[in-house]
C-alpha cells in the first residue's frame, strides 16, 4: 500500500464527512462518494473529487462516514468493489456493531479498522490538537501507519477493543447526551449564573445540534447505555428526596 501520499475516499458527505475531508486534505487526495443530489453543489469548489459509482473507488483508505443506521447498506454497496491494498474505517459512535458488520460484509482481503473520533464539528471548531481518536484494529497491519497520520495532525490515538470503547463511551459521550437532552427543555440560561454553569452550558452546546441519528446511535445503539441510564435516573431520584 502506498502511504507516501495516501488517498482517501469518504463515503458520506454530511457534517462529519465534511469535517474529515477538510482535516485530511493536507495529507492526500480526497474523493467523495454520496448519492444525494445536493452533494454535487456542496463539493464544487472544494478541491475534492466527487465520484459517481463505488466501482470508481481506488483510494488506499476508505472511510465510512455514515450513521450506524445506514452502515449495512453502505457496506453492501461499496464492499464488492473493494479489495487487497485498501483499508476500510468506520467512524460510528459505537464500536461493537460496526466491527461485526465490517467483518461480516467486507471482502476478506480488505483491511479493517473500527474507529471513533471522539469529537464532532462543534468540538473541533477551535482545533483538534489533543483530541482523541479510538482505534480497534480488526484486520491487517496498516493501522499503525494510519495512526501515525492522525498523530501528525496532533490527535491522540487510543487503542482498545470495541467492548472497552463502548463501556467507556457510555459513561462519557452517552451520559453527556442524556444530560443535554434533559437540560435543554429548561430554557434559556438565567441572568445570574456561575462559571460552572457556563461550562456546563458550553458542553451541552457541543452536542445540542447533533443529528437525531447520532443521538439514537449513542443512547440506543450502545448496549451499556441501559445501565448508565438506570443509574442516572436513580441518582436523580436520590438527590430529589
Automatic annotation (TrEMBL):
Residue span(s) of domain Prephenate/arogenate dehydrogenase: 6-241
A Pfam entry, by short name: PDH_N
Protein's GO biological process: tyrosine biosynthetic process
A molecular-function term among this protein's GO annotations: prephenate dehydrogenase (NAD+) activity
Domain of life, source organism: Bacteria
UniProt entry keywords in alphabetical sequence: Oxidoreductase
Keyword match Oxidoreductase: yes
InterPro entries in the record: 6-PGluconate_DH-like_C_sf, NAD(P)-bd_dom_sf, PDH_N, Preph/Arog_dehydrog, Prephen_DH
Gene3D superfamilies linked: NAD(P)-binding Rossmann-like Domain
Record-given protein name: Prephenate dehydrogenase/arogenate dehydrogenase family protein
The species this protein was found in: Paracoccus hibiscisoli
